[in-house]
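We store chain and fold; example below:
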Amino acid sequence: MSSRPITLDDLRRFAIGRSLFAPTTLERALTRFGYVQADPIRAPARAQDLILRHRATGYRAGDLERLYPTLDVEEDFFLAYGFVTRSIESLMHPRSIRGVPVTPGVPWSRARRAQAERLLEFVRERGCVHPREVAAHFSPRSVRNYWGGSSNATTALLAGMHYRGMLRIQRRDAGIRVYAPHEHGEEPADAGAIRERVDELARAAVAIYAPLTTKGLTQLVRRLRYAVPQWRNQLTGALERATHQLAHTRVDGVEWYWPPDEHPDHQPVADTVRLLAPFDPVVWDRDRFELLWGWAYRFEAYVPAPKRKLGYYALPLQWRDRLIGWGNVSVPNGTLESQIRFVGARAPRDAAFARELDAELDRMRAFLGVAG
């Protein structure tokens, strides 16, 4: 291990190199990550697919959903909604009956719990159910959902039961969740076992998103309230333990943290261009993004069009160990169209960059299955 001081350049290369590892099988990529954030917007593909295409050899848009029944993953909330390995999922359950993200801060009433039990029996009788089947047996009342829209009351109840671990997603039919009953192991036997579970979840989160600033680490651990709302009072202690157990250093007045068995020195970064998803682990922490690459990336899908600066679904553009701009990619009439913009207003004057950008757009075409 080098004794020289760690620099911001080291941290840039570390953030790129450890996250964008050499592509492997989809199963191994999912095991290595443990969690991939999901998003329903398809522009030009869903976030989970855009994230995995860089890590899984030969990955094509929709592969995760298509292969989901054969993979060792579950759809669930971790730091946000996404796909988690069953080893991580087992640490989060069983969840107690509390307010859930689809109905924030609203505990289930006795009547609601009774509805859930009746619905669970209905699902058990059939083995798996499509929400349409459930709606045919329950009143089609609309309720306000977590994202501000309206949901059928039975669909919202299914989502709440899934969050609590009563149901699992068995597969999707044309994007619609098909539910099956779910069983979990016993609750931890004592406070020490709970503490170890929460610490293990914190370690898993850090392994995905390191290196992290103090602010980033704090926000990351606090987001575990979605994973374990029943143990949210344990998160302050988990954060304190993490700050003592993780490797760390101070660079330009900012404290940085990462797993103790890793080191940011001498991280190789290939001559590669990549268009990254808005929720890619390299991009996810917006404050870290600005510290490492000197400009502010913003996700603007929900910003009114006249106020957008980067675009509806801008994909940050990586070149070597820098994020130097962004691209907006679309597929009108089955043909890939891209608009690439640069922070410095012009592309790098490097023949290798032009060649690698063309290669990345070719990879995007193959991933999407479209023409040039």
Remarks:
- Residues 61 and 134 are 30 Å apart (CA to CA).
